[in-house]
Design goal:
The complex is a heterodimer of chains A (about 150) and B (about 525). Chain A is an all-alpha fold and about 150 residues long. Chain A has 7 helices and no strands. In chain A, helix 1 crosses helix 3, helix 3 crosses helix 4 and helix 3 crosses helix 5. Chain A starts with 6 loop residues before the first helix and ends in a 9-residue tail after the last helix. Chain B folds into 2 domains: about 300 residues, FAD/NAD(P)-binding domain (3-Layer(bba) Sandwich); about 140 residues, Cholesterol Oxidase, domain 2. Chain B is built from 12 helices and 16 strands. The chains are: A mainly alpha (about 150), B alpha/beta (about 525). At the A-B interface, helix 5, helix 6 and helix 7 of A face helix 2, helix 6, strand 4 and helix 9 of B. Bound molecules: flavin-adenine dinucleotide. The site of flavin-adenine dinucleotide has 42 residues of chain B, from helix 1, strand 6, helix 8 and helix 12.
């Protein structure tokens, strides 16, 4: 329960995160659950009194709904079943998915593994920075050839 | 120093206060600057940590209302489509600024004569030119000589890199035969005066951890302090006090512990920016000045100008490497800068291209614009957006109107109980037409550069970062607050040196002109020391 969620909640949440952002087909980008964003979400939930009830209530509903289909919970369901339940949840707990998706994006697109998967270094910009080409200043030749553009006064 | 009278007391250590302090330092006068914020530690700026993409929305955000640092004062700008953005620290708003560093055009000082609207300035480009040059030496301005949009000027440093993104957009401008040029940028593109060179970190507007961006805490202040100017931080000025003759005799301020103190001075200089300055003047009420100090004209706080901005963005097929390089500085165009009445509005605008988005902003933009799907297809939809965006902000000239104003809010106050400013501002018809025009032209050039889709937002609500006109300069005390060298008409030992004194706003970023003006005012003070109050 290191994350602040129970083991069952963590396991359900990990699967939901992988539904929100699954691994990429080329294997370069991990799924959000596989990336271990549960801790990030737990932290965000603790800091946001608005989000907390929506996430906890959504997870509990999802566990109840899954229980009717498999004794092993949401993670054991097929892809189609997961999608169906999440669709159902969108009507019963409308704040759950939008809030969770937003937090998932925040955690995912700041993660070093994801930055690397996108082709940029998985580190803060400073102190190494980035190389950037000066570019072709010859492109300015037509601009230089034009008359002056300011009003003399 | 409770009883000591300092020679010059400056309030505010931003772009203007720093330049004036540095210039006056060679007089060997006793100069003290009071600043409500503190020194920033660049090692703690967002780009040094993995949460760099998010912190720009938090404690290093643009709005003092959202940021809520103890040194911030809240601003009621609910009656304005444009919201104030600033920073309160040593260096002021230059801590966050994008460092776009253009000069005004000569015609910007002659708006009434040339275009029959607003007012002429009582000074002109030629007079400010040596101060622009001096400011370029002190701040370090990267640029390229030969821009046909300007009288000849020499940059101090090589231009910021175009990168693939700048080249792509430059080709678009060329296709249409429009003007463009690498932006004048207050960024050290190579080592300069002890400052490390720019390493293309990206978001300059959350503070430059490299120290390459010319915020005044790393340019003017270290030199001014070495030369003996005292900079007292976490000192928030409540009011300017007057003696029995109605001359300024010092200020009342709260120190870091919240204790009220008085500091006496021979000369008081206000440099709190176009919103902070009228706020302080209006808060300085006495029997001599029941409507606020230096406000016999009734113009303190009036004529607020912001620069209405448009943001125009395009989605391209190719990656543009837009996540690197100074966010706000790449290339600019002044194709539509000078007045052409056939366009349906007077005056004009500058297009300033932006670099692309970082990974998280891409996702959030994709989410809010409905272009990013979650679940199956997430990565494919993300790849359509990631590193494919390039665009511009367009900065439109605002014109002075008395109804656009800063007053004191009857309820809102800062942590020391000082009344906060309230903004009432609306867009003029001229601005609306200009915004419409620039959005259409912005889309046209992005399409010419290869954008397959374009997007626009105008006016850009967050873009209240240029604060001007609220204590305007002029020769007639009925129609202006300060004279042609920043001295208040009503109080001869009180000077104002920030964007408040602008008569008109031009269609470019103001900081280079704010600093050139404050260097000019400092020179006038030095030249007139013997009879400064005559
Ligand atoms: C996000 C952003 C981007 C920008 N980009 C650009 C750009 O690219 N180019 C450009 O030219 N400009 C830009 N600007 C604007 C630029 O920062 C300002 O024009 C410039 O800093 C104004 O200088 P100033 O000295 O008048 O005021 P400021 O730099 O705002 O300094 C005023 C100082 O006064 C202090 N102060 C205020 N009231 C009190 C008080 N009562 N007691 C004590 N201290 C007080 C404040 O704490 C502050 O430090 C940008 C601004 C922002 C916020």
């Amino acid at each position: 329960m290191a994350s602040g969620f129970s083991d069952a909640e963590s396991s359900t949440l990990t699967s939901v995160l992988d539904e929100i952002i699954p691994p990429s087909r080329d294997g370069k980008l991990p799924g959000a659950g596989e990336l271990g964003l549960v801790d990030y979400i737990a932290d965000a939930v603790e800091k946001s009194p608005d989000l907390k009830p929506a996430i906890l209530e959504g997870l509990s509903t999802l566990q109840d709904l899954s229980g009717g289909r498999s004794s092993d919970g949401f993670s054991a369901l097929s892809k189609n079943e997961k999608a169906e339940l999440l669709k159902e949840l969108a009507t019963t707990s409308p704040a759950f998915l939008p809030g969770l998706t937003y937090q998932t994006y925040l955690g995912y697109y700041q993660h070093p593994r994801v930055l690397e998967g996108l082709g940029i270094p998985g580190r803060p910009p400073h102190p190494k920075g980035y190389e950037l080409e000066v570019g072709d200043l010859g492109l300015l030749d037509p601009v230089r050839a034009r008359p002056k553009r300011y009003r003399e006064c | 120093m409770p009883d000591e009278v300092v020679d010059v007391l400056i309030v505010g250590s931003g772009a203007a206060g720093a330049a004036l302090a540095w210039s006056l330092a060679d007089t060997r006068m006793k100069i003290v600057c009071l600043e409500q914020g503190d020194w920033m530690d660049p090692a703690k700026y967002p780009t040094t940590a993995m949460d760099w993409q998010l912190r720009g929305f938090g404690d290093m955000g643009l709005s003092p209302n959202g940021r809520g640092r103890p040194e911030d004062y809240p601003i009621n700008d609910s009656e304005s489509p444009i919201h104030v953005s600033n920073f309160n620290a040593v260096g002021g708003s230059t801590i966050l600024y994008a460092a776009h560093f253009p000069r005004f055009h000569p015609a910007d000082f002659k708006v009434r004569t040339l275009d029959g609207i607003a007012d002429d300035w009582p000074i002109d480009y030629r007079l400010l030119e040596p101060y622009y040059d001096e400011n370029a030496r002190m701040m370090g301005v990267a640029g390229l000589e030969g821009d046909p949009a300007y009288p000849p000027k020499k940059p101090t440093l090589p231009p910021v890199p175009l990168g693939k993104l700048g080249e792509t957009l430059g080709r678009g401008f060329n296709k249409l035969g429009w003007h463009w040029w690498p932006s004048d940028s207050a960024i050290a593109t190579r080592e300069y005066e002890g400052r490390a060179p720019c390493i293309n970190l990206g978001p300059c507007i959350t503070g430059c951890a490299q120290g390459a961006k010319a915020s005044t805490d790393v340019t003017y202040w270290p030199v001014a302090v070495r030369r003996g100017v005292e900079l007292w931080t976490r000192c928030r000025v409540r009011e300017i006090t007057v003696d029995e003759n109605g001359m300024a005799d010092g200020v009342l301020y709260y120190d870091a512990e919240g204790v009220e103190r008085k500091q006496k001075a021979e000369v008081v200089v206000v440099a709190c920016n176009g919103v902070g300055t009228p706020r302080l003047l209006l808060n300085s009420v006495s029997s001599h000045f029941p409507d606020g100090i230096a406000n016999r004209s009734g113009l303190v706080g009036k004529n607020l100008m912001f620069h209405p901005y448009a943001m125009v963005m395009g989605l391209f097929d190719e990656p543009l490497e837009g996540y690197k390089g100074p966010t706000g500085c790449c290339i600019m165009s002044q194709e539509f800068y000078e007045t052409d009445p056939s366009r349906g509005f007077l005056r004009g605008y500058t297009m300033e291209t932006l670099r692309g988005m970082a990974p998280l902003s891409t996702a959030l933009w994709g989410m809010s614009s409905g272009q990013l799907s979650s679940g199956e297809g997430h990565h494919e939809s993300y790849q359509q957006l990631w590193d494919r965006t390039a665009g511009m902000v367009v900065i439109c000239e605002d014109l002075p109107e008395e109804c656009n104003q800063v007053t004191l809010d009857p309820e809102l106050e800062d942590g020391n109980g000082i009344p906060s400013p309230r903004i009432d501002y609306r867009l003029s018809e001229n601005s609306k037409k200009m915004l419409e025009h620039c959005v259409a032209r912005g889309k046209e050039v992005l399409e010419a550069a290869g954008a397959r889709k374009t997007y626009a937002e105008a006016p850009l609500g967050v873009a209240g970062w240029h604060l001007m006109g609220t204590a305007r300069m002029g020769t007639d005390p009925q129609k202006s607050v300060v004279n042609e060298w920043g001295r208040c008409h009503d109080v001869k030992n009180l000077f104002i040196i920030d964007g408040s004194i602008f008569v008109t706003a031009a269609g470019v970023n103001p900081t280079n002109t704010i600093q050139a003006l404050s260097l000019y005012i400092a020179d006038k003070i030095k030249q007139n020391l013997a009879n400064l109050f005559d």
